Amino acid sequence: MNTEAYWSIFINASLVNNFVLAYFLGICPFLGVSGKMETATKMGGAVTFVMLISSICAYGIHALLVAINAPFLQLISYIVVIASTVQLVEMFIKKMSPALFRALGIFLPLITTNCAILGLALFQTSKAYSFTQSLIYALGAGIGFTLALILMAGIREQLEFAEVPNVVKGTALTLLVAGILSLTFMGFSGLG
Amino acid sequence: MSTGITKNAGINTNPSSTDEFIKGLWRENPVFVQVLGMCPVLAVSNTAENALAMGLATAFVLLMSNILVASLRNFIPKQVRIASFILIIATFVTIVDYAIQAISVDLHKNLGAFISLIVVNCLILSRAEAFASKNTISKSIMDALGMGLGFVFALFCLGAVRELLGNGTLFDIGVFPNGFQEWIIMILPAGGFFTLALWLLLFNFFKSKKVQV
């Protein structure tokens, strides 16, 4: 059993070991959906929600797999649960806000292949977090992901007005900005 | 970026098998051109050895899943195809995970959760969806080999640069004379972003040169 304090788990997951900028998890949506502030915020919300649900499910599955002594099924069962959660969220958003559904486009079903979510499930298992600790960890990770996405979207909206040489335009520029953001987040490393 | 799933759907009019092989290496390089599967590329490319191991593991999973998807392509119903692909991929990743653990415990520790995370590598799913589910087994094998080697090549490029500058070594062998000041930043996360950005710049530069000529 891990006895890490709740606030320490939260700060660690959201700032010190930010999933995007320190662990490189969820880079695809980070590069893909960070063009506009509004979409970025909502994507962050959707990812945080899926993280919370799959964290709960992963906790249950892990307990079950330990009980029946079949750890090799871990990866397969986690990914199935995540895929079905994403399907659920997709149906929910489609019903509640068709506009948002169109804005997120292909990146909504792709939350399934967002490594941040599977990574979260795997990390919480390997760190042997209790149920509450897992929830806090998921919340921190989700907020950290949203934070990174929003920061990036803000910067990219400003970059629209900057004159950039043609060669640098596109992914290369986004990666350079991400590198600088990652550097700034290193400043948090003393907090954990 | 994951939009690669929809574009370049591999429906070119009858290219030869060698074409399928070559395209992944250079023209449609999964990392430098399609920008797919970024997470492991950035995360485990801090040394050349890690990068090579990760690249080979991914290439193996890609090859096996492409073979299986291509051979089952007429049996998998369209509605559940993505779910079936992910299950197939997850099975092979579990195999690779246990295999690496058996071969080298140290390596397994270095790569950590990123072996399991091969499951969600967009590259593999996109090849299954865009290529293997529509083409014959032999073509899918060539495609997987090309894309896999292209991925290994890209990972190695990143890993080598980062280890060389960040640690002053290549495959743990010292390269620079004594007194070389290591660029610690290169093995830190930020260095991953910068190195990849620079490689992309290089590729863009060559591409723009070609267009002008």
Report on this structure.
The complex is a heterodimer of chains A (192) and B (213). With 192 residues, chain A is mostly helical. Chain A has one domain (12-182). In chain A, 70% of the residues lie in helices and 0% in strands. Chain A is built from eight helices and no strands. In chain A, α3 (37-67) packs antiparallel against α4 (74-96), α3 runs parallel beside α6 and α4 packs across α6 (115-126). The longest helix of chain A is centred in the first third of the chain and has 31 residues, at 37-67. The radius of gyration of chain A is 17 Å and the shape is globular. The mean pLDDT of chain A is 85. With 213 residues, chain B is an all-alpha fold. Chain B has one domain (16-212). Helix content of chain B is 65%, strand content 2%. Chain B contains nine helices and two strands; from the N terminus they run αααααααββαα. Chain B has helices at residues 17-25, 38-43, 48-71, 81-103, 105-111, 122-132, 137-167, 184-187, 189-212, and strands at 169-170, 173-174. A two-stranded antiparallel ribbon of chain B has the order 1-2. In chain B, β1 (169-170) and β2 form a beta hairpin. The interface between A and B is large, with 45 and 45 residues.
Features:
heterodimer; A: 192 residues; mainly alpha; globular; B: 213 residues; two-stranded antiparallel ribbon; 9 helices; 2 strands
Brief summary of the model shown:
The complex is a heterodimer of chains A (192) and B (213). Chain A contains 8 helices and no strands.
